[in-house]
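Record format v2
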Amino acid sequence: MADEAPYVPYAQRPEWSDLEPIAQKDAENPLVPIAYTEKYRDAMDTFRALVHAGEKSARGIELTEVLIRLNPGHYSIWAYRAEILLETKADLSKELDLMDELVKEHLKSYQVWQHRRSIVLALNSSDREIGFTTRALSFDAKNYHTWAYRQWALCHFFAPSGGDTSASKENREEVWKGEIEYVDRLLEEDVRNNSAWNHRYFVAFESGAEKGDGIVERELKYVKTKLALSPNNPSAWSYLRGILKFTSTPHSTLIPFVSPLASLSSATPSTRPTETDGIPIPAAAELPAYLAIEFLADACVEQATKLFSTAKSEAEEKSAEAAALFRSLIQYDPIRTKYWEYRATESVKAVGA
Amino acid sequence: MATTQLQPTPVPDYLLTDLHVSYIQSLDVKRDLAYYMTEHLRMNGIYWGLTALALMGKQDALPRQEMIDWVMSCWHEDVGGFSPHPGHEPHIHPTLSAIQILAMQDSLDILDKDRVVAYVLSLQDRKTGAFAGDEWGEKDSRFSYIAVSILSLLGKLDVLDKEKTTEFVHRCANFDGGFGAVPEAESHAAYVWTCVGALAILDRLDLVEKDTLCWWLCERQLPNGGLNGRPEKLEDVCYSWWALASLAILGRSHWIDGAKLSKFILSAQDPDKGGIADRPEDLADVWHTVFGLAGLSLLKHPGMEEVDPVYCMPRSVTRKLLGK
């Protein structure tokens, strides 16, 4: 049976023997050194010597790779590695290959994303970045860094206005269209993925890639379909409210769509609504959806405010309706009792009742 | 054959102060691999540990002069900033932690404040108003908060281009009332705190959609009492700080069910070794310990010192330093 080869410290290796390792100043020798600890300390001692000598070399690239595999959070190692790569004019696409390989373990490290960005900017190449983030999202569809990076890559390399990107107009349009399709795919897998909803809002309303009334109509239809499918989905309700705010559309226009979802007549199968605005509500959807009731309450508040100056008594009626709806939410969402009570009191106060 | 069943120590529903103190004291003593691998977080870690102790009224549990000397060993005269550990490069984040430690140790007078101010200002992007963490240029709203907090603690807020700084932070606001790391990034409780904190220091809370944001924040509370960072994610003790402190700054901390949140934080304590974890039965760490304790302080848990929701330091320190 072959034993694992004993670890050879860097200072004893021919290619490294010229460099004297610099130990940590306050390092204590543990009584029982663990092999893994030994490897890390030795590599760090050698790294310190390398940095002290200001050496930017191929063996530095090797050493920093050993270290980032052992400790991906160590910021200075990434920074020094990037310096070496750029100064030695190393093959940066090879570096992206390494980053592609390591991404799964490094998803939550700020440093790895900043490092990738530096390399990609030096390469000035966008070819791999969208595909890379798609792959990274397949490991963790809600990873915050990945989504922010994808948005950065889209804006930097495929800015809809053109800017100084080299991508053609057709290419850019294709890329942004692909984003809507991609988000759609992700929401099919998990309709509650808040990051995907945020990205959709970014593409449709903030990127400048899509223009015209057709977009609003399309997105309204989309979110309504998803809400009918899964009416207890906070992200979808947020998205709907986002569209209304963006287009300055009153909540009341959605009352016919929302009411069946807030329906309290789901006690028996025969009275349970099966569709809303022509969109089927599956049997599995849990009704009433309290977020729908909240929406109706907000719509009443809006209406009360509008009526206040011209029809005071109607305004008071509407605000009382709102207050009752808010109070009814306490039974569905008891943890936010104080919030619902606040909304109920405020809606009545607003009309001076 | 008789067998003994090892029962896990039940977690009491009160604060295990003495155990948390000894846990924090042990952090610098246990020199295992994790200790060396987290050098890049050391300055932050000392700030977290010291704040946790201070909020329990036990700041003296760690030696004061030794700590000050160690902090100053991370000072980079050539740059005007602090590194997270000797031998590492300076960065704006450990610079804030260093200043917070010195402030809590009543030792800010040893600092060359003008050098620090120059360093911080050098990191601002003149075009966007955003701050980078260091020369590598990573920018996000955390660094806006850090820059503003540093200048405020040093009494040098007047030299800042407040309008430009505010502009970037405001651009991080989203359609749901929340804030993200950079413009258009998803709303996330930690970034809500950094943006709201920065705006509070800059006296621009008028830019916050208060009702919508506070609704978004109180929606972070899950049936088990814990808070998450964004919709459909898991609860985590650290959001007891990010989300609750944001609500406190906006005067709405009562919108959270405080009793349930307290219970959740206390249930995440390690009843054997002390410290607090991200959620019950997980491994404790100093990050979750300080934010769990700070959360309990915001909830006015008995025996806790008052925490400043904008600076995450004892209110007694910020009141003395800022005169308000």
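Chain B has a mean pLDDT of 95.
The two ends of chain B are 68 Å apart (CA to CA).
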